[in-house]
Task: inverse folding
């Protein structure tokens, strides 16, 4: 709240002389004989008191000027929705003085321009149009404004219910652009909120009442169609005295606020909060980063282990179905499968890191270093033949000979065929021995490849885990740098705000005596004019 330092008014002291007392009596008599209290309270306000009122109560100054310069007019035609907000607005406007007579809200705006019959013609030449604070002007409202302007009506626009819409300023700017486009650039839109006015009246907050816009709207309505020019001088004098009383109340509230030190205490509390939280953000962010990073590591390692185990089970099942000739090219097929698995793991790592970055600072994933897919090495070596293979050959031959002898045993009963059964026995034994040896070699080769696959996948798993761990470390490093930079920026901003608060505290401590003295001088000026206005009102009615 601004303060003033007007020149010290001259105050009469008791005992200064009879001449001063006589002048006071003659002044009081002059108020009743030829002094107009309206002129004394509105026209003849000195620049000193006008400056005080304008400084502390600008809406009151505008109201006094509107009342003094107004002329008789009819009731204001209210055009807008007949709802709770409109009713509340009319109720709150009725609490202001001088009273502005508003018609019942016209929900059909054509009645204000094209009445169906002379009996329903609206006699007012002033129209108050209520606009919605949440939507832009429509074509019907713009055409209505054009017709009213063509008829010479005075138009006032008010945007009601600004408390319910955060973007009402953008809507108001859009409406002003539409008005300028349709040739009504001279019209302004007054933002108002009757609910804020109710809250201000309940809490006795003059600043909140100013923000509600009801005072500004009432001043515009008074200047347009109040009709107070035909009122009595006593009413105008009472209005002026009320404005002076409201101004004095605002000065008193400012003095109370200065003496209580509430603003200084609030600034010191803000400074303490800023200092307490100066470095806590960095520790919290780093702790969150470590926790999220460990959680991501556990999830990725678990997922990699599950994928490798699934690949191992698939490889064993596939080896059991392969023929001996197909076993030679299986390492290449396994390498291709590992490349595909690496792509899936990389996508899973990217997704998990994106979630980590989103939870930390909302930024993107930093660029990562991608190594080639793991190799399923070492290469498969040929299976070395040992004693077991020779033993299998011997056992196969022995089993084949025994099987052959069993098959040709019926031939030995015929003496002529006994000699011929020997070659048959040897042939059958050799064939059985070859089949046994071949089957045993296939089983051994399959077992050899199966063992190699197990060893290779263990190596692949280790490389994939290292791949994920490397990506996590790189991401953690980048995020830690972001956290440090953000923490440093917050600390610098906190230091700047603390310095501003300390500057304001020092300035308030230095300016408080002068502000109190200025407020007291303003109250003395207001008290003197209030007392003169009351004397003029009483003696003017005698």
Result:
């Amino acid at each position: 709240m601004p303060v003033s330092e007007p020149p010290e008014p001259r105050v009469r002291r008791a005992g200064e002389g009879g001449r001063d007392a006589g002048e006071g009596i003659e002044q009081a008599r002059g108020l009743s004989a030829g002094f107009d209290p309206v002129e004394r309270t509105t026209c003849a306000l000195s620049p000193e008191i006008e400056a005080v009122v304008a400084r502390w109560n600008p809406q009151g100054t505008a109201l006094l000027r509107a009342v003094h310069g107004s002329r008789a007019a009819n009731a204001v035609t209210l055009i807008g929705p007949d709802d709770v907000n409109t009713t509340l607005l009319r109720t709150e406007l009725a609490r202001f003085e001088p009273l502005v007579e508003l018609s019942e809200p016209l929900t059909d705006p054509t009645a204000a321009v094209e009445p169906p019959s002379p009996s329903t013609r609206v006699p007012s030449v002033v129209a108050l149009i209520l606009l919605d604070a949440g939507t832009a002007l429509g074509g019907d409202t713009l055409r209505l404004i054009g017709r009213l302007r063509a008829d010479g009506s005075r138009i006032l626009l008010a945007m009601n219910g600004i408390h319910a819409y955060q973007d009402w300023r953008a809507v108001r700017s859009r409406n002003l652009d539409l008005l300028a486009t349709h040739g009504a650039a001279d019209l302004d839109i007054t933002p108002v909120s009757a609910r804020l006015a109710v809250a201000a009246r309940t809490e006795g907050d003059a600043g909140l009442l100013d923000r509600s816009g009801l005072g500004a709207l009432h001043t515009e309505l008074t200047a347009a169609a109040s009709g107070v020019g035909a009122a009595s001088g006593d009413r105008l004098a009472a209005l002026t005295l009320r404005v002076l009383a409201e101004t004095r109340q605002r000065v008193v509230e400012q003095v109370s606020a200065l003496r209580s030190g509430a603003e200084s205490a609030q600034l010191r509390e803000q400074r303490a909060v800023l200092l307490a939280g100066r470095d806590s953000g960095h520790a919290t962010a780093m702790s969150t980063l470590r926790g999220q990073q460990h959680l991501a590591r556990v999830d990725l390692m678990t997922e990699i282990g599950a994928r490798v185990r699934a690949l191992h089970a698939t490889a064993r099942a596939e080896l059991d179905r392969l023929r001996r000739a197909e076993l030679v090219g299986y390492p290449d097929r396994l390498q291709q499968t590992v490349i595909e698995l690496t792509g899936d793991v990389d996508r899973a790592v990217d997704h998990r890191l994106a979630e980590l970055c989103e939870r930390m600072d909302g930024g993107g994933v930093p660029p990562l270093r991608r190594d080639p897919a793991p190799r399923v090495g070492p290469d498969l070596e040929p299976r070395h033949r040992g004693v077991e293979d020779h033993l299998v050959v011997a056992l196969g031959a022995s089993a084949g000979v025994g099987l052959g002898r069993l098959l040709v045993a019926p031939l030995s009963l015929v003496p002529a065929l006994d000699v011929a059964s020997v070659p048959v026995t040897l042939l059958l034994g050799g064939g059985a021995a070859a089949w046994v040896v071949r089957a045993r070699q296939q089983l051994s080769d399959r077992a050899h490849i199966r063992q190699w696959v197990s060893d290779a996948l263990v190596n692949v798993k280790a490389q994939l885990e290292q791949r994920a761990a490397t990506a996590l470390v790189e991401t953690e490093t980048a995020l830690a740098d972001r956290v440090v930079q953000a923490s440093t920026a917050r600390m610098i901003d906190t230091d700047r705000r603390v310095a501003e608060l300390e500057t304001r505290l020092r300035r308030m401590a230095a300016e408080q005596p002068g502000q109190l003295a200025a407020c007291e001088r303003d109250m003395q000026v207001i008290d003197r004019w209030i007392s003169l206005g009351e004397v003029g009102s009483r003696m003017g009615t005698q």
Summary: The longest helix spans residues 421-540. The two ends are 40 Å apart (CA to CA). Confidence is low (pLDDT under 50) at residues 1-44, 111-124, 227-232, 535-542. The CA atoms of residues 221 and 237 lie 20 Å apart.
